[in-house]
Amino acid sequence: MAFKDYNLWHKLKTWLHNEKPRVFFHEREIWFCFLGSNIGFEQDGHGDKFLRPVIIVKKFNNEIFLGAPLSETDKKGIYYFHFSFTQGVKSNAILSQIRLLDAKRLKYKAGDISVGDFAELKDKLRQLLA
């Protein structure tokens, strides 16, 4: 496993918590999100801003939501949901990595998942959690 230096992420996380305002968001939207540098096999953000696309699965209020990180890597199995929200680009929601997130982590909206795909994703999550 590669060595990680968490100093840059901690500086950004401090700014997110103390200064960044929350944005308005809805379920079914896909946002680039400050996911950070995480432990072990947890999904990290990429680049110097630690960003990763996330689908908003459930909005609890204007502050927090349940989100699933996305990957372009084609993975098989019950822990992944395949769809496309950008023409020609396949996305994979990593269902095993859903987590509660604060809206302060949202950077910019990248698109929306279709109503039909969103219904399938929620069904697959129900089956996974049952």
Integer count of domains: 1
Order of helices and strands: HEEEEEEEH
Structural class label: alpha+beta
Shape-level CATH architecture: Roll
CATH topology grouping: SH3 type barrels
The shape is: globular
Please count the beta strands (DSSP E, at least 2 residues each).
7
Distance between the termini: 32 Å
> What is the CA-based Rg, rounded?
15 Å
**Helical region count?**
2
Main β-sheet description: 7 strands, antiparallel
How much of the sequence lies in strands comes to 35-45%
What low-confidence regions span 5 or more consecutive residues with pLDDT below 50?
A: none
Characterize this entry briefly.
This protein has about 130 residues and is α+β, with helices and mostly antiparallel strands.
Task: Provide key terms for this protein.
single chain; alpha+beta; 7-stranded antiparallel sheet; 7 strands
Structural topology:
Elements: H1 7-18, E1 29-34, E2 51-59, E3 64-71, E4 80-86, E5 89-94, E6 99-102, E7 106-112, H2 115-129
Antiparallel strand pairs: 1-2, 1-7, 2-3, 3-5, 3-6, 4-5
